[in-house]
Structure to design on (193 residues):
């Protein structure tokens, strides 16, 4: 696993020990960031990024390498936290990163609103909808923020009316959704995806 592009291109990243996490492959991450670069580049440059269910932290660190301003991780697995710390050090990003060592579904501390959010919850646990609600209620998502959400096969997602589905892609077993957040609820009915 490595950083694919940007100022930290080629930097090797550590994967967490054990089988608790499922790091996004370099190939899938490259495809994801190609879409971001071509369709949502303004969302990444100088953005405050939030990486939820961060695992190794590869998604957030890739965004940081490509021009994001700051990065906050939310992860509560010890092995993943140790990998994130090692990867932050490898990317020389200690001054612009922060780790919340809490359960994403039970955040007790407020954080600054992020402009770009990556969420990659464990597959087959249907955590995404609840996690999005928790982040919204804690004002962790800036108005107009882009949310990139990866789900496994069969995982359910109910999109609140605060979120607009912009795009969705499938890579192997992973389904990736691009959502736009608006602090004002829309009047349209929200689909279950």
């Amino acid at each position: 696993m490595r950083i694919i592009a940007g100022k930290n291109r080629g930097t090797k990243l550590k994967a967490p020990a054990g089988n608790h996490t499922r790091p996004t492959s370099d190939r899938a991450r490259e495809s994801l960031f190609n879409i971001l670069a071509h369709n949502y580049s303004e969302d990444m440059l100088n953005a405050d990024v939030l990486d939820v269910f961060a695992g190794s932290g590869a998604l957030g660190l890739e965004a940081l390498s490509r021009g994001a301003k700051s990065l906050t991780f939310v992860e509560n697995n010890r092995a993943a936290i140790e990998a994130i710390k090692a990867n932050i050090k490898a990317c020389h990003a200690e001054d612009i990163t922060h780790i919340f060592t809490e359960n994403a579904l039970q955040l007790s501390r407020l954080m600054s609103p992020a402009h770009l959010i990556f969420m990659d919850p464990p597959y087959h646990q249907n955590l995404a909808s609840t996690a999005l609600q928790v982040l919204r209620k804690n004002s962790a998502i800036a108005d107009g923020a882009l949310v990139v959400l990866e789900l496994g096969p069969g995982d359910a997602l109910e999109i609140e009316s605060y979120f607009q589905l912009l795009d969705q892609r499938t890579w192997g077993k992973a389904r990736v959704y691009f959502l736009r957040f608006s602090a004002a609820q829309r009047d349209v009915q929200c689909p279950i995806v």
About this structure: The radius of gyration is 15 Å. The chain has one domain: 36-181. The longest strand covers residues 141-151.
